[in-house]
Design brief:
Helix content: 40-55%
Number of helices: 4
Largest sheet: 3 strands, mixed
Radius of gyration: 15 Å
Strand content: 25-35%
Oligomer: single chain
Shape: flat
Strand order of the largest sheet: 1-5-4
Number of strands: 6
């Protein structure tokens, strides 16, 4: 996972698509979409790099969060993909159980930050 300047570097190296040209800084809560899944984070960027993108196992984002903590379904699916490539049988049920322990807190964060993202 490449975040912020790491994401911009991955773009400049040709590992991910898009550009990372300088522009006026944006600093706000953002709900982005990746493959039909809403992702919540804090966008603090001074480039035109895509907010979030994925190519194979490389995930790049301009969102701060922490992104995985605010988006446990994204974390679970990403870990499952990595495990599959490595030939590891990942117990998704265990991941879902752990994610459900913090679901209420994550829901509250989403409620507060989604409102801010729509401003």
């Amino acid at each position: 996972m490449a975040v912020a300047t790491g994401h911009e570097r991955a773009i400049k190296l040709g590992l991910l698509g898009g550009t990372a040209k300088a522009k006026a800084r944006i600093s706000k809560f953002e709900v982005a979409d990746i493959r039909g899944q809403e992702i919540l984070g804090y966008l603090n960027s001074a480039t035109d790099a895509p907010v979030i993108q994925k190519l194979g196992l490389l995930l790049g984002t301009q969102l701060h969060g922490p992104v995985f903590a605010k988006n446990p379904a994204l974390a679970d699916s990403y870990l499952a993909e990595i495990a599959k490539v490595q030939g590891v049988d990942l117990a998704i049920d265990a991941l879902n159980t752990n994610a459900s322990l913090v679901a209420g807190i994550v829901d509250q964060v989403w409620e507060l930050e989604r409102e801010l993202a729509s401003e």
